[in-house]
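Hello again, I could really use a second opinion on something today. Take your time with it, there's no hurry, and the full record follows here:

___
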Amino acid sequence: MTANPIGSNRPVSLEDIAAKAGVSRSTVSRVINDEPYVSEKTRQRVKAVIEQEGFAPNPAARALVTQRSQAIGVVIPLVPVAVFENAYYFPTLLQGVSRVTYEQDYALLLWLAQAAQGEESFYRQVARNRLMDGVILASAPDDNPVIERLLEKRIPFVLVERPSHYYDRVNYVTVDNVEAAFEAVSHLINLGRQHIGTITGNLAIPDAKERLQGYRKALIAAGRDVDETLIVVGGFDHEGGYRGMQQLLMQKVDAVFAASDLTARGALQALHEAQIAVPDDIAVVGFDDLPTAVQVSPPLTTVRQPIEQKGAIAASILIDFIEGKVSELQQIVLPTQLVIRESCGALQG
């Protein structure tokens, strides 16, 4: 609590700041809320007094004036154990978001699903919440109802993937998953691999569908048939990669494209246990370029995507919409890079 300059125990008020700056209370309020009709000289004088007195505006009072809570939410419709199994992807995404919210003086609320909570109840709770001015939605399945509800309630939001519905009404930040997967699988084809399998992510999530689409596109472009027995559905997780690789071993694959590095790590574990040499017998390529990519043996060839940048851009777009700085749709596609390491066999010899 800020001490009163007069020496009493009550907190510093707008009236105290106004008296010391020699302006009206309404002028102080306009400066705090960054409103116009205040000269630059007066604005700087008021700010200097605020800084000197260590004054912090009452959030509730400020919200009444601005009609904003100065907080945004990040909604990840996964249970905590699924979110934090991957010790890098979501924390890095959140790091990008939190950097921007800190710079813009916004609070950050994190929404995670609970195992005991129904999906409908979770999305209803998010849409009805009044503690945040907007939402960043990550890893949301195609059939989730929250997008429709956010649109109905006119709540600003940004997706961290390309939407499957309402394409012409939704802001998003993503990477070109189709072309990135196409490049990764084409790389394996160019290395002479003949039986290339894939372990997908959760196919309810657009990123996973797009990466599978890129896999198919690369095979067709090379004049090959798409063998459905070489496509194993996973879930972007280690267990999915491990089980998926066990299935693909029975199909005699000589290369695997995994939809995430975590999936690729599970696949590598299955290969090591089966005493299959990587990349001599089976090549492996992942997606994300997480720190684990250089920690596994052999180091993983993978698609690098700018995870922290995705979070930062999503937060910037959302705050700009909240503050009325932009009104046109923002749909950003960031570049990726295929990072060649030992697991694909390209560095041999």
Summary: Residues 206-221 form the longest helix (16 residues).
